[in-house]
Every structure is written in structure tokens, then in C-alpha cells.
Known about the structure:
Metallo-beta-lactamase, Chain A; 7-stranded mixed beta sheet; globular
Amino acid sequence: MNELPQATPPKTMPFGAEAFQKNHHTEIRWLGNSGILLNSRGYCMMVDPVLEGFDLPLLIEMPIKTDEVQHLDSILITHSDNDHFSIPTLRKLLPLTTALHAPKYVAGLVKEKMMFEALGHDIHASFEEGPLKITLTPADHLWQNESKKYDRLFKLDDFCGFWIETPDGTLWIPGDSKLLPSHLEMPEPNAILFDFSDNEWHIGLDNAIKLANTYPNSALLLSHWGTVDAPHMNVFNGNPADLLDRVDNPERIQIMAAGESFILEK
């Protein structure tokens, strides 16, 4: 591990088959970085799962191995960066599911690289999966256009967030994004998967706090932090302590262990 200080989450809480069983509520388990497992009354969905194939050393143990996942009803992917779109992980998860939803560009990559007919959507489009209604929300994460690594011009509709309505409340995943005006004009969600990376292509710390205080009753499930050993990279090394004195109602900040369960409530 790098000797520079970097905030870390509580010790990983491994889970297994019990996390995929039918229940009478909606629970969210953080998978590390920006990934979650959502189980809503037995309907199981992963969002941006990266369970293997990291290109940086890790600070945490993964809460479940890819080979231990028994089934998924669907998968959601916000964009094509490899800390959200993990080809090694998806190659093992896709045989366990019948649906992967993503922006159209990402859906095309899934078909090209993994021969799986993913479902591509426009921003603001809505669809239903089991008891869930899901809407793609806008995101601005166009850092690729300033890199010589890519030979295409990326567009805003290659990236998204997800607004997920469950029988037990609403979860909003803004995705990797600069703060957009529309982000401050949403209905108040019951919970936000909350990126607070102080990075120019992410929301930035000050704007993350602005977003949090726009929705003062939303639970904040911290994400995009405490997973990879990269203290020199501000995109990965957020510190929850920077939020505590600036976020209204700081008791709603959820500093979760990987694998820990959060119960979503209206």
C-alpha cells in the first residue's frame, strides 16, 4: 500500500447467497468504488459491478467473488470507463442475466466485445424491470475528448446516471459527472449513490456538498472512494471527513463497508 494517507472504509463484510434471496424490502449493498447490488423484494440488479480486473492495487477485499454470484435479473452500466465497465467481470456475469441496460454507445460495446444483446437507451428514457422503473439521467464526463488515447469523439449521451424507483423508495445514481443544472432540479430521492471526488471531470467536493444540501433528507451512500490504492489520484481518494462539517444533517452520510446492506425507505 502507498505510504501517503488515504481514507479507507470499514472492513469488508462478505456476503453470499443470502443477499440474492426474496425479501420484503429493498436493500443496497456497496460493491466498492461505484458498484452496487440492489435487491428489491427478490429482484436482483447490479450497477457498474467491478469485482475483478482492476488495473490498480486495492485497499479493500471485494465482498463477493464474481464466480460466487448465482444470478442477476439485470445489470446497469453508466459509461465505458473501466472502473465502471469491467469486461472481466461482465464476461462472467452476463451468462447469469437476461438484460443489460446502458447508454447506446455502451450497449454497442457490450455487443461488440461480449456478443451480448445489451439494451441501449437515450438519456431521459425510462424502462421497467421487475418492480423497478428506471430512468436515465444526464451526465457530463467527457474527459476522453482531451486524451490522445481515444480515436472517437465522445458525446454527452455516451454517459448517464440512473433514477431507480422501487416499491420502497427512490435511489438516484448521478454517475460520474460534473454538476449539471438539472442535477439540482430533481425530486428529492430517498437515497443518492454519492460521488464526492474532488476532480474536474467529476462533481468536485464543493459541488458535491451543494448537491447534498439541495436534497437535505436524502441518505448519502458514499461511492467512488476508498477502493483503489491511489492517493495521488483525486478521483479515487475522497475523504468522508471533508463532508461532515459541511453537509446538512450529516447523520445521513453512510460510510459503508463493501458488502454492507443499506435498507431503502421512503
